[in-house]
Amino acid sequence: MLELRNITKRFGAVLANDKVNIVVKPGTIHAIVGENGAGKSTAMRIAYGFYKADDGEILVDGQVHEIASPHDAIALGIGMVHQHFMLVDTMTVAENIVLGAEPGSPTALDLATASVEIRRLSEEFKLAVNPNVVIEHLSVGQQQRVELLKALYRHARLLILDEPTAVLTPQEVEEFFSILRRMREQGKTVVIITHKLAEVLAISDEVTVMRDGRVVGRVQTSETNAAELARMMVGREVLLRVEKPDPRVGAAELSVRNLSITAKGGAKRVDDVSFEVRKGEILGIAGVEGNGQTELIEALAGLVTPSQLSGKILFEDRDITREGARLRRELGIAHIPEDRHRRGLLLEFDLAENSILGVHYRKPIVSFAGVVLDNPAVRKRANEIIEGFDVRPANPDLPARSLSGGNQQKLIIGREFKVEPKLLLVSQPTRGVDIGAIEFIHRKLVSLRDSGCAVLLVSAELEEVTSLADRLLVIHDGRIVGEVDPKVATIEEIGLLMTRGH
Amino acid sequence: MKLLRELLFPLIAVVAAFVVAGILILIIGDNPLQTYALLFGSAFSWPVGIGYTLFYATPLIFTGLAVLVAFRCGLLNIGAEGQLYIAAFATAWVGITFANLSPWLLIPLCFIAAIVGGGVWGAIPGILKARFGSHEVINTIMLNFLAVALLSYFTQYHYKAPGDPIMQTIPIGSGAHIARLGKFIPSLPLFIPVNLAFVLALVCCGLVYIFLWRTKWGYELRATGTNPTAAEYGGISVRKQIIIAMTISGSLAGMVGINEVLGYRYRYYDGFSDNYGFTGIAVALLGRNHPVGVIISALLFAVLQRGGIPVDAFTEHVTKDIVQVLQGTIILFVAAEAFFRGPFAKWGLLRRSKV
Amino acid sequence: MSDIINIALIWSTIRLSTPLILAALGGMFSERSGVINIALEGMMLAGAFTAAAVTYAAGSPYVGLVAGMLAGALIAAIHAVACIRYKADQVVTGTAINILMIGMPAFLSGAFFLSSGSTPQIPKEQLIPWIPIVIAFALVPISWYVLYKTPFGLRLRSVGENPEAADAAGVAVARMRYAGVLLSGVLAGIGGAYLSIGQSSLFTRNMTSGRGFIALAALIFGKWRPFQTLLACLLFGLTEAVSIQMQGVVKLPSGDDIPVQFIQMVPYILTIVVLAGFIGSSRPPRALGIPYQKER
């Protein structure tokens, strides 16, 4: 049905796809698995015409095709449901479904006919949704159904689904899988991109495994198991067991009491969460992404409007719930954000200027009436960070943009360590970072904890949180659903908690 | 190398604009080279040419700086026109109302009036954006019109000499006049209106540079402009920065009032601004949003503005309107820089020159 | 106030609203596709000048009107290419076009008619005082239909709201945006033509005097919807009509005239107030002003 041959794609310096070969047989459910950043989505976005490959060819039904835009892909019978839904929020379900493939004449949009067809498809595939509702009023699960209908309406024979279960509850996942099976029965082909092995084993017929932009394995689902797939995905038998002494735990540095966070639209992102982080320990929070971790860390860092919060945040027994980011930094809270481009760096600024963000108004960075930046002091700080954290190239005059992801991350970590924090909030510290840098960052985090700092660590990489954390909380749907001892708990146990809680 | 790259695109844009305008001149049957010779010819003669060039450059430096400061905070201030009008009127009002004060008091008061007047009018869209998120571009356009209507009312109904057919206020007190440069440079005749405001404009360039690149305030403002979410993470209040940037921007635009009222006409003259505010956008863009660039491009636009007069007089068909055609085309080319970047990238001449 | 003044005022309002309606509807197509259009002023000037010049030369206002439309479209094409192809800042490009179009008509009339800034008088029988009015008012329901009841309109709105989603659905984003901007040029061109060969009988320097910006304000005031925009244009037209006709007629309790400037200020203040969200919320198309970049 679909074949990618030697697909290669670069984004700047990053090789996202390196001679990728994938064969999807007609009438099957084909899983593509791999860790974050393995290049799964890139490959499929190329197949859908969203990206243009630098090299290689795409075959549909055995024929080589030039797929320059989604328009071409749709014409070939390919549909794709993206991880972030591609829906126009202010339009109705029917309008979204017909968009680009409208029925009726060019002078009259025939939404009535479309609605009939949409209803028919909804019934056939058990995808109940009202065609006349505006998208922004739908739940995420319903929006996903709209996306599926959109593809089916365009007579897609091949459906590519990018992390479709990330937004679903376990019950919904079951229901969703039965929809996929129904599609397969009707002769459709499905490609499902995921990093959850249990799902791969439950739903797929064949599996392609990707790692670091390359295809590293291709197996029949019936002939494999989770352990084998995990080995292929990760590429090493045991991942980074971090050497660390037992913690010397002190008093509570941060206490979170009944904290809830309500998003602008009214949805609860974090729901009645309480925990403590003590001096000298790393408290890990494990969970599937999008279960409130981002909001939790931002709230602790002072980046969420106080009116969205309820409950209390206490730092060294001081109530800081309503204080802004600046004061929290002054109290000794440092923050390594999950998205370094959005939060962590001023990409157009040079390394020296980036190295003072957050302390730029304080001694010794400012001299002369507390206003003028002291250039020698700025450079001294920058050079210390660059040396201490091995940032390359070691040139404080380069714009941050010119650094690789790993070096950008080291710069941020160095900057936040430099303030000698009492509490460090750290989110996805090694995302998009090469192996060498990962080990370096892990060692640094442990040494900071050994010096008595309280560390709160959020990571989507289970291996990472279990190997670093001294205590581990599991978050699901904005709630803390359990605490485990990372030394004894197995990945399976934690995974189970992460996906349902009990 | 960095400097060269910074200069490259503005230079290409200017050359391209002259080529386009040259073709237009050819089409209507005149000689482009002769026209350009007239355009630039008189600008560099001492003392009249240079004197006038500097005089014309003065308001453009102020408005260019105004646009620059807002731009560095990620805002587009197309309201410099309104800000400078309000400021000029405020200056004249102080100069008229307190005409009898000693110059030592009156001139500083007038300066304050210009700075505060422009600052207030600039702060309004800043506050509206910070508080309600409404786009500064539309609000500054509306405030331009509002300023014009408001001042025309005050001029017509309250500050015009009875029976004066011209829309202008009565003169300010002579104690509020600031010296023309001819006073300090013997070979520069006093009728040339370039005055101390030009020196002030240069000082402002220095101050803006120091403010933006050497102080913590400038750091916060620029950080907000390049990445507001990261600025917030660094403990910087984005809303505050927006208001500060628009206020400073308005104040800088407001200093045009000092040149106009205290140094040139000695009264408020309705509609005096020859699109200074909009040309300021061109000045800042062409000057790469850097104070030194602003001085250079303000001088270029000043030369054009003054050169329009001989072009009008001595060519057969070309009118002084060629100046606006050139201005518009230059901005267009600077804005659509990718137009040139494409071929350059293809030839491998440069990697990335975004700083 | 007598009845006569009322009728005169209504006519005057309609005439003064016409160029605003045309330009605002044009702006609607551009902004609904996601391209900010502060170049309406320049497009109107292009239309006004070209229509007058061509009508004078060809002797036919219909040829002039078509020429005015084309001139508007030509200027729009410059805006579109800069903004869509080269991803230039849409506000800066618009400003550039406005400055360019202050100079260009004067430059050309200086060359062709040997008078800086204006075209020669056009005989009365060659003017079209009614056609543009009819077009303007007819275009309101037509625009509504096109925007909400045709595939074209659906696609246009989708690229202005979420171009990535539109792209994923197979809509050619750039093509739709070109269409939106070009349409705005055509309509603004008619609006300009009305000023020079409808309302008056020649082009004069900067004869739009800010109407492009007022049209933009009306568009925002009308929340980017055709009928609300019509109402906003009528309101703004009314304020202009009042400021022209009622000078010295309406008096304050103190016996003084209401200064004309205060009536002129009404549209500006209303727009600022609406934009701040005091009167309902006016939400722009979500992708307005953002160039569409495919591979980020």
Describe the overall structure.
The complex is a heterotrimer of chains A (502), B (355) and C (296). Chain A has helices at residues 40-47, 70-75, 93-98, 111-125, 140-153, 170-185, 197-203, 226-234, 293-301, 325-331, 340-344, 351-354, 368-371, 375-388, 405-418, 435-450, 462-468, 491-499; strands at 2-11, 14-24, 29-33, 55-60, 63-65, 78-81, 158-162, 189-194, 206-211, 214-220, 252-262, 268-278, 282-286, 309-315, 318-319, 333-336, 366-367, 372-373, 423-427, 454-459, 471-476, 479-484. Chain A is α/β, with parallel strands linked by helices and 502 residues long. A six-stranded mixed β-sheet of chain A has the order 6-7-8-3-9-10, sandwiched between helices. In chain A, strand 14 and strand 15 (318-319) form a beta hairpin. The two termini of chain A are 41 Å apart. The mean pLDDT of chain A is 89. Chain B has helices at 2-27, 32-41, 48-72, 80-97, 103-132, 136-159, 196-214, 216-226, 228-233, 238-254, 256-265, 276-286, 291-314, 322-335, 338-346. In chain B, 72% of the residues lie in helices and 0% in strands. In chain B, helix 3 (48-72) crosses helix 13, helix 4 (80-97) packs across helix 11 (256-265) and helix 7 (196-214) packs antiparallel against helix 13 (291-314). Chain B is built from 15 helices and no strands. With 355 residues, chain B is mainly α. Chain B is globular, with a radius of gyration of 21 Å. Chain C is mostly helical and 296 residues long. Chain C is built from eleven helices and no strands. The mean pLDDT of chain C is 90. The chains are: A alpha/beta (502), B mainly alpha (355), C mainly alpha (296). Chains in contact: A-B, A-C, B-C. At the A-C interface, helix 2 and helix 3 of A face helix 6 and helix 7 of C.
